[in-house]
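User: Could you go from structure to sequence for me? I need the amino acid at each position, not a summary. Structure tokens:
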């Protein structure tokens, strides 16, 4: 692809990723509640979900996805259900900084899959890859090399943007470490995650 086309895509994609939405709200809430490191599997799942959407769009499967709309609706509600579970966990968490545990380490894969499910069912992401992406990139002329070039842009753009959000949330969390503040953070986090789940579930 030409440099100007890649630059145009990078700019449009960055604006789409950086604009607050349910995914960012859930990630920030997760980082506020459990810290930067324990939000990374969830972040990785969001990144993987974007790559999946781009791959499906590049392969021209948008029509097929509409034919199997029920499958993506099921994925959307699975992601919402997991967000509700995380919201409950955050709301009822002890008013103290979380400590590493075997359960926390084993939670990584579930968080990763939750991030993917959330992204696949996020209307904001669907609109970008099914509607806006074809306006920026000619998907009919997308060669394997061009696909790799765009994927190589997507990964660092979304990763660095989400890392910045998660890190900022973690720094804010560290400024207020008292039990009362942590209780407020946990319950605010639970409310934000539940709100993100509701926002995704109620959008078509």
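Assistant: Here is the amino acid at each position, in order:
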């Amino acid at each position: 692809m030409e440099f100007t086309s890649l630059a145009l895509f990078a700019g449009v994609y960055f604006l789409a990723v950086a604009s607050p939405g349910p995914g960012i709200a859930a990630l920030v809430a997760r980082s506020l509640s459990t810290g930067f490191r324990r939000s990374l599997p969830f972040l990785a799942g969001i990144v993987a979900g974007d790559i999946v959407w781009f791959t499906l769009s590049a392969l021209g499967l948008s029509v097929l996805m509409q034919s199997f709309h029920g499958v993506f609706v099921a994925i959307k509600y699975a992601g919402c259900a997991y967000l509700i579970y995380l919201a409950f966990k955050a709301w009822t968490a002890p008013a103290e900084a979380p400590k590493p545990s075997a359960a926390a380490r084993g939670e990584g894969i579930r968080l990763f899959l939750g991030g993917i499910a959330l992204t696949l069912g996020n209307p904001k992401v669907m609109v970008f890859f099914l509607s806006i992406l074809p306006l920026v990139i000619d998907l009919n002329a997308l060669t394997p090399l061009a696909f790799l070039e765009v994927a190589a842009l997507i990964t660092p753009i979304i990763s660095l943007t989400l890392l910045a959000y998660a890190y900022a949330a973690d720094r804010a969390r560290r400024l207020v470490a008292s039990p009362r503040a942590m209780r407020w953070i946990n319950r605010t986090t639970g409310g934000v995650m539940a709100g993100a789940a509701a926002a995704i579930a109620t959008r078509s």
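One structural detail worth keeping in mind: The chain has a mean pLDDT of 76.
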